[in-house]
Amino acid sequence: MKTLAELKKRLAALKAEGRGIVEAAEVSEDAVLSEAQEERFAAIEEEIAQVQAQITEKEKLNERRRRMQADGEGTQTGGGTGSGTGGRNAVHDSDPRQTAGFRDIGEFAVAVHGAVNASRYGGEVDHRLAALTGSHEGGGAEGEGYSLPPQFRDNIWELMTEFDEFGPLIDEEPTSSREVKLMHDETTPWGTSGIKAYWRKEGSKMTPTELDDEGRNVPLHELYTLALASEELLEDAPRLNNRLSRKAAQAIAWKKNLAIVEGNGVGQPLGWMKSTALITVGKEAGQAADTISALNVIKMYSRLLMVPGDEPFWQANSDTLPQLMTMTVGDKPIWMPPNGLANAPGGFLLGKPVRLTEYAKTVGDLGDLQLISPKGYYAARRSSGVKFASSIHLYFDYNTMAFRWVFRYGGQPHLKKPVSPANGPTKSHFVALAERA
Fold it and tell me: Where is this region: Disordered (predicted)?
């Protein structure tokens, strides 16, 4: 059964796909959904209704657990790690299997802080930490750690998906391994290797062919954030909860997304901008520095290799807008706002949506304008069973008094190099405009 975080992630992905279908129809010649789009949109609406119903049921169940919790319930623990209960730690147990009795991650962090002080100076450890089966981990010089209760792990993952720009778009899947093996056959029917078809005259011998299968390893790299916390903040669980959960999620999501775009593949995912699958379209003869021409855009579009069923998009820095919005072919604009200039944050370029993002370089640099078929990128995230982000742990370091979040992630483009079509120049899932200096 899916967790609440998984359901909300699926809901966000469905809504994003639905928006993409509507936006594509808006810029079509008839401004209506095609038969295939209608069919897919109806399926999306049906699944959204199902997912929303499951979310409602799970939230209702959580609320019922909360209401059944007796007020003031608690157990003597000592050690000075209480949360305003006079030496007793109140148990906030919406589901003891999910929260271990903690109200939120801030209260959990304060308990971890108290446990480390107890081990250094004497005192008792909050009994709720001891109740977390297999939670305590020795870290030697790096300190001691306690595994986050499942609900708080899911909450962090849920926050990460809120800031996750590419996760719902790329070919991403969970795995319990630290490395996955991809099977690749990048041959084409017109090439010299791989499966081929032949004409045969009657009675002649058939020529056998076989898959040209290249196994490729995708390691899952460790991504972490080490957050310093003052003694004052450690004594304030509500503030600590907000700082740790949202800030850690933002930091991890940013770094993960950045690696998907421009990671070098050494101790981190290989991004499409650093991969050998990238196609760069050069500037035109005599083109001025830091400019984008209509011919640049058209040539980029001609080199895109679309994954069947995918929704390609342009990725651009916002400082490209003054040029994109005024660009024409003859007297016809090639950039179109979805509903007039009042509702046009990104608009459409040659019918594909424009995503304005900090993952694109400033105008004039390589990567200021990119054309992406996102399903051409494969990624794997570490999970355990049906729980997302189960490898994220909260640590307290003896020397630096810091909290450390860790999870594993790996990725690379499906293609090792651009594909050579039967006729014409190579194509790829990833096309970028070269530097115009």
Answer: 60-99
> What tokens were used for 121?
């100076």
pLDDT in tens, 22-57: 877 777 767 788 888 888 999 999 999 998 888 888
pTM (2 decimals)?
0.66
Its sign, for the CA torsion 70, 72, 78, 82, is positive
Alpha-carbon distance 338 to 74, whole Å? Answer: 56
* 172: its two tokens: 């991403």
Distance CA 110, CA 89 (A): 11
Is residue 270 within 8 Å of 411, Cβ to Cβ? yes
pLDDT per position as a tens digit, 345-377: 578 888 888 999 999 999 999 999 999 999 999
Count CB-CB contacts under 10 A for residue 49.
Answer: 10
Cβ neighbours of residue 414 closer than 8 Å, sequence gap 6 or more? 171, 182, 184, 277, 376, 377, 378, 429
Domain spans in the chain, listed from the N-terminal domain onward: 4-68, 272-379+419-433
CA separation for the pair 105, 155 (Å, rounded) = 9
Exposed/middle/buried for 413, CB within 10 Å: 0-12, 13-18, 19+?
A: buried
59 token code pair: 């939230």
Distances in whole angstroms, Cα of residue 166 to Cα of each of 160, 175, 255, 258, 325: 11, 18, 12, 10, 25
